[in-house]
Design goal:
single chain, 63 residues, alpha+beta, 2 domains, 2 helices, 29% helix, elongated
Amino acid sequence: MTRLRQQPLGQDIQALLQGALPVDTNVSRGLPVSPGAIMGKIVFKAADDEAWFKWGKNAILAC
């Protein structure tokens, strides 16, 4: 996020929505990736991830 001012973020969002901030003010920045760059089943245990790998399937280990 671009630092706007030292005040609660909610006030900056309100100012942005009400047009008080310039249009070219960055309030956030994302990563340059496309949706679907990573694909697979979500698993929560390392053993499950290893099992999916052995089966030749894609899995994403969520911690």
